[in-house]
User: Fold this.
Amino acid sequence: MMEKYNHECSRKVKDVSLQDLRDMLAEFARARGWEQYHSPRNLLLALVGEVGELSEIFQWKGEVAKGLPNWTSDDKEHLEEELSDVLLYLVQLADVCGLDLGQAALTKIVKNAQKYPVNPTSHA
Ligand SMILES: [Mg+2]
Assistant:
C-alpha cells in the first residue's frame, strides 16, 4: 500500500479513498510502534491541535477570497499540509473507534438532505 503511493506520489493520484488513507496510516503507525499512543482520546486531542494550526493560517487575515488569489505558493502549501493533518487525524480517529467514516459521511449527507429539502424559491 505505502509502496504504491510512494511510487505514485511524484505524479497526481487520481482518486484517493478514505480506506486507502486509513490503511496507510495504520501501517505507518504499526511500523513505528505508535499504535499504543493512538487511543481515541489522544487522536481527538491531536486533531483539535491540528485544527488550531489550520486556524492560525487564517487568523488576522480578514476575509479571504475563494481560490486564495493573493496567497503565495508557500502559504498554499502550508494550508495543504494543515488540512491534511486534520484529515489524517480524523481518519485515524474514526478507524480506532471502529467506524467506517466514508459510509458515515454518505449517510450524514442523506440525512442533511432530508432535514434541509431543496426549496426552489430560496435562491435566484
Ligand atoms: Mg500540523
About this structure: Helices lie at 2-8, 18-32, 40-58, 73-96, 101-115. The chain has one domain: 2-112. Residues 73-96 form the longest helix (24 residues).
